[in-house]
Design brief:
The complex is a heterodimer of chains A (464) and B (304). Chain A is α/β, with parallel strands linked by helices and 464 residues long. Chain A is built from 15 helices and 16 strands. Chain A has a six-stranded mixed sheet. A four-stranded parallel sheet of chain A has the order 5-4-6-7, sandwiched between helices. Chain A has a three-stranded antiparallel sheet with strand order 8-9-10, with no helix packed on it. In chain A, α2 packs antiparallel against α15, α8 crosses α12 and α11 packs antiparallel against α12. The longest helix of chain A is centred in the C-terminal third of the chain and has 31 residues. The radius of gyration of chain A is 39 Å and the shape is rod-shaped. In chain A, 35% of the residues are buried. Chain B contains ten helices and ten strands. Chain B has a six-stranded mixed sheet with strand order 5-4-3-6-7-10, sandwiched between helices. A two-stranded antiparallel ribbon of chain B has the order 1-2. The longest helix of chain B is centred in the C-terminal third of the chain and has 26 residues. Chain B is elongated. The chains are: A alpha/beta (464), B alpha/beta (304). At the A-B interface, β2 and α15 of A face α8, β8, β9 and α9 of B. β2 of chain A pairs parallel with β8 of chain B.
Chain lengths: 464, 304
């Protein structure tokens, strides 16, 4: 039995009314004039007027009328097996897939995607939402589910790093939507440590990172990061430096690690530097032997991703402030200024040129490889295209399985969903209360007959 | 002739008519008048027996026949009957239907009519507005009408003083007579009994017609009710279901006490309920009185 308007039960307080009537108001005992009191045994007289209910059957009928009426107002809905089957027939499901760095680094993203697709396939209708911020994706998932008439379920596939999905976020999930938190293996990121430098023709340096599993992985410094505008395209940053500048560049790289968390957006060396889809940013130092040739063929950047990268560089406060403290050593060439030096000459400017046969965004510096501006430029270039990293990605603890299991809940059936407050499609016109109203009418009739009979008896009694 | 229901009789405004109807109902039963006067009329001689009062010896006959004969007399006329009627508020019960006061008025009127028709004197003693209201015992149709008019004016209210009223009624009889008290006898039970005994001792023939309604006998209420006593307006809350049996027991005990004391004191006693036809109540009472008087005559004749 479901009560669609459970607040109506407050109406049961009205039962106090007939009780009070029987005790007080109409409960005044009928008065009879009588010749004498001499034959009444004073030791057996009624003690007080208000401690004894009179006409208990009439009171019972009246209370029954009220209870039936309140029950009818509460709109009962009998959950028969047939009705349950009809309402629990279909399911809509949204799978929120956490694609944050920690999940990606664990190498479980593909299996998680397959799981998400299977979960969606199990439902009658479903969606997979990939996001690096599961908490932010919940609203969209809830909005979509609200439009579905079926049972609704929300599945979150994540490694559940602490802070990634908190209770406040989960509280936004309406009670009628089922919730299932499914853990996929994650790998918290440890801060990378520079342990080795290998300077080769195409790589500037190598760093090692240590993962949770303890495995040591080598990363080419010819780093890549998420490309601008297209997540499937890696962004490669190359440093074109002269022989005598390489040590300075290496030092600048060391310094750029201090930028901190943004470095964590780097992809590992699995991304081939010669990927045809790669977007290349080349940093040309003053001592680079390719500088003259590149500048000779350079033109103003036109590719959208280049302009987007330039905008990001121009908004990098550290780069701008550092460049302002440097002195530009050489004249500028045609291109777009990235940062000005203290003498209002371009410290860094950008052109579009072909590097190793690929159209690249070339950042030309006038400051030396050992300058602070170079360090800042390296750090800014790394940040370009890197996805925003939440602080949760630094978290090494995860939501416990116990707590996660407790947060899980089954999707509400259609029937259950209809009775939740605010459910837009409550069971209108399907209440079984009409039978109770019929009972109310019958009881009222019985009460009237009973009352009439009782009063007739009293009148006859008084007449005698 | 079918007995008139109490409701019909009580509904007749004219008391004289009601009384006549009741008395005619009595006659259909072929009863003799139960009231015998004390005036004497010679009836016969009988031989003297030892112990006979010498004053009844017929000396003239003795002189002629030289035999002793005692004269015997028949009581004939000029019986005085005083009807004492309870007019207290308790007689107003029940307030719907036939009240005890109305029933008592009809009974009283019928008795007055009966007595007057037989040529006896009849009077009425009652209280009206807390003062004695009486009609002296006389005979004749005009007097009867005056008595019935007085009876019609009587309305039950307040309390009454039965010993004083009865004593005053008996006092109004100039000689020995009949005093009939019609009441529920709720008030001053012991004093009333004592006064009735005094009246008997003064040579009057006394009758108690105890008039009650069935409701007083049965207490037909149920549940918690508030009883408002008619005379004193004292109110009392009672649970009729709880005290019903005790009440009925107390009433039975009271009635038994009244009957036994009346019997012991030589008083005619009759319990009349208002649900009985008045002529039937009256007939029952008169038959009982006849039987008692016949038994009394037999005893006195035997004694003589």
């Amino acid at each position: 039995m479901i009560w669609q308007q459970p607040w109506a039960w407050v109406g049961l307080l009205a039962i106090a009314a007939p009780i009070m009537i029987h005790l007080l108001g109409l409960g005044r005992s009928p008065r009879h004039r009588f010749p004498t009191l001499r034959f009444f045994d004073v030791t057996r007289l009624a003690p007080t007027r208000r401690t004894q209910l009179h006409d208990p059957w009439l009171l019972l009928l009246r209370v029954a009328v009220l209870v039936a009426a309140v029950s009818a107002l509460a709109q009962p809905f009998y959950r028969s097996a047939e009705r349950e089957r009809a309402f629990a027939a279909s399911l809509a499901r949204v799978v929120v897939l956490d694609t944050s760095v920690s999940v990606q680094r664990a190498g479980t993203l593909d299996s998680a995607r397959r799981l998400a697709e299977r979960l969606v396939a199990e439902a009658d209708v479903g969606q997979v939402l990939e996001t690096t911020e599961p908490a932010l994706a919940l609203d969209g998932a809830i909005a979509w589910l609200r439009l579905q008439p079926q049972q609704r379920a929300l599945v979150v596939l994540s490694d559940f790093q602490l802070g990634a999905l908190d209770s406040v976020s989960l509280r936004r999930v309406p009670a009628d939507i089922g919730l299932r938190l499914e853990r996929i293996a994650g790998a918290s990121l440890s801060f990378p440590v520079v342990s080795e430098h290998r300077v080769g023709p195409r790589t500037v340096r190598a760093v090692t990172t240590r993962t949770d599993s303890g495995a040591t992985r080598y990363t080419q410094v010819e780093w890549t990061s998420r490309a601008l505008g297209d997540s499937s395209t890696p962004l490669v940053v190359r440093v074109l430096a002269g022989d005598e500048e390489r040590e300075s560049v290496r030092a600048a790289l060391d310094a750029s690690f201090a930028v901190g968390a943004r470095f964590l957006g780097l992809q590992d060396s699995a991304v081939a530097t010669d990927s045809p889809r790669g977007q290349v940013i080349a940093i040309v130092t003053p001592g680079s032997p390719q500088r003259s040739a590149l500048l000779a063929t350079a033109r103003t950047p036109r590719e959208p991703w280049m302009l987007q990268a330039l905008a990001a560089l121009q908004s990098d406060v550290v780069l701008q402030e550092t460049a302002r403290s440097d002195v530009s050593g050489r004249d500028s060439a045609a291109g777009l200024v990235v940062a000005y030096a203290s003498d209002d000459q371009p410290a860094v400017w950008a052109v579009e040129a072909a590097v190793e046969g690929r159209a690249s965004l070339v950042l030309v510096t006038n400051t030396g490889a050992q300058s602070l501006t170079m360090t800042a430029l390296l750090a800014a270039a790394r940040a370009v295209g890197a996805p925003p990293i939440g602080t949760a990605e630094l978290e090494t603890d995860y939501l416990t399985d116990d707590l996660r299991t407790r947060l899980n809940r089954e999707p509400a059936t259609e029937l259950q969903r209809r009775v939740y407050a605010g459910a837009p499609n409550a069971v209108e016109g399907e209440s079984d209360g009409r039978w109770l109203w019929l009972l109310v009418l019958l009881l009222l009739g019985a009460e009237g007959l009973f009352r009439r009979r009782l009063y007739s008896q009293r009148i006859e009694s008084a007449a005698r | 002739m079918t007995a008139l229901s109490p409701t019909v009789v009580a509904a007749i405004d004219d008391l004289e008519l009601a009384a006549r109807l009741v008395v005619e109902g009595l006659r259909t039963g072929g009863h003799r008048s139960p009231f015998h006067g004390y005036s004497t009329e010679f009836r016969q001689h009988r031989p003297y027996r030892a112990g006979d009062d010498l004053k009844y010896l017929d000396w003239k006959l003795f002189a002629r026949s030289d035999r002793l004969y005692t004269r015997q007399f028949r009581e004939t006329t000029n019986l005085s009957v005083m009807l004492v009627l309870d007019t207290s508020a308790s007689m107003a019960f029940p307030e719907s239907g036939v009240s005890k006061s109305r029933y008592a008025a009809v009974i009283t009127a019928a008795l007055a009519y009966l007595v007057s028709e037989q040529g006896h004197a009849v009077g009425l003693m009652t209280m009206h507005h807390d003062k004695f209201a009486y009609v002296p015992a006389r005979g004749g149709r005009p007097h009867l009408r005056a008595l019935l008019a007085q009876l019609d004016r009587v309305e039950p209210r307040g309390t009454w003083d039965p010993p004083r009223t009865i004593a005053r009624g008996a006092q109004l009889l100039q000689r020995r007579g009949v005093v009939i008290v019609i009441s529920d006898f709720y008030d001053a039970e012991e004093e009333t009994r004592r006064e009735l005994r005094h009246v008997v001792q003064r040579g009057h023939d006394v009758a108690m017609l105890q008039l009650l309604s069935p409701a007083e006998l049965q207490l037909p209420f149920s549940g918690q009710v508030e009883i408002d006593e008619l005379e004193t307006h004292t109110r009392q809350l009672v649970d009729a279901n709880v005290i019903g049996d005790a009440y009925r027991g107390a009433v039975r005990e009271f009635l038994d006490r009244c009957r036994l004391h009346a019997l012991r004191d030589g008083i005619d006693y009759a319990l009349i309920t208002t649900d009985m036809p008045p002529e039937q109540s009256l007939r029952d009472y008169l038959l009982r009185r006849n039987r008692r008087q016949a038994a009394g005559h037999t005893r006195s004749a035997g004694a003589k």
